[in-house]
User: Fold this.
Amino acid sequence: MDKLKLIIKREFLAKVKNKSFIVMTILSPLLMVGLVMLIIFLNDKNSSDIKTIAYVDESGQLATVFENSKSIHYVDLTALGLEEAKKKTETTYFGLIYIPKNDSIQYLSEGIEFFSADSPSITLLNSIESKLENKIRNLKIAQLQIDVEKIKATETNVDIVTENFSGEKSSKIGSLLRMAAGGGFGYLIFMFIIIYGTSVMRSVIEEKTSRIIEVIISSVKPFQLMLGKILGNALAGILQFVIWMISAGFLMFIITSIFGVEATSSSTAMGQMNPEMVQQMQQASTSDLQIALQEIKNMPILTMFFSFIIYFLGGYLIYSSIYAAIGAAVDSETDTQQFMMPVMLPLIIAIYVGFSIIENPHGPIAVGFSIFPLTSPIVMLMRIPFGVPWWQIAISMALLLVTFLGIVWFAAKIYRVGILMYGKKPSYKELYKWLKY
Assistant:
């Protein structure tokens, strides 16, 4: 036991004192926060870019739809005619909408064109088309001598509130929160396994190629060495993740406190609105916040927390054991390629299945992959926010534990033979022989 502690301490300190570890621990939160701020800045810059679009309405019936908005300004060039308007638009405006003359409202939608030097975005075209469609529809209804206002009065929005038989209500906001929580936990485990599992493999390969492992094996058992490497790297990884989360959250708080541009601009924009509209928006935002808080309260927080710890450790220990065995079996990192795909395949399947089953978290595919040990650390965590029966979690954890013990046993047998094997590229057949030694 003392030797295992020494190995864990050695691996932990070797990882933590590594220059690349220190640099990435410091730089990663800065890069993450910087990337988020850059995306926010680019989106704000893109949304604040005002496009001026001219139009020529020869029909004389659709010009009223072209009202200025926050991002689009319209200019009427109907008096110039199409050709002159095209010349003026080419040097002055972003684009030109041409509506040809039609005597019949029935054919008013035909022949409408958009001229521009640059290709317009799909969002812009959809916005213009939607305005024109609604206007032409209303004109056709009016031609049939039907009251448009009465038809508008019949339009109704239905917002279904779901409720289980125990009386707990849920909403669309709750579904989004559950999707975000499940997806975040699953992706976090996936990234941790990939990053620190390969770190264990590289550590084993490095010690094997430098022949230092021959000296270490003379003092400790191969199983102790493998387990010490896995746990030491895991502790270093957990420390790095905790530092990332705390520092990124602190940086985001500082930046939003100092550069509260979004809040200032939104309050200025609200000040220019109708007071009744502002009040409605404030009531809607307050209502959404209350619903979100209630949904968070209704989520199985304790189950999610403890399950995350168990699946986090179980998933990492299973895959890092496999990575350690691969590192012991090969002489260089290039030789690991033939073994990596079978290891990566369950993780990739778990991610794709996890994100696809969010629409049906209690279906047979979701249940099957959340119980299967090689995919359960990711898929089950994506299901738990939606509510999972305790017996499914219990079966999944039991299978995860049994699989972990089995894989560690197999990995240790490969490890103890492979760490002293040199100059021969192992095949799957060769690995099978090592298991029988």
Confidence is low (pLDDT under 50) at residues 261-274. The first helix runs from residue 2 to 16. The first strand starts at residue 51 and ends at 57.
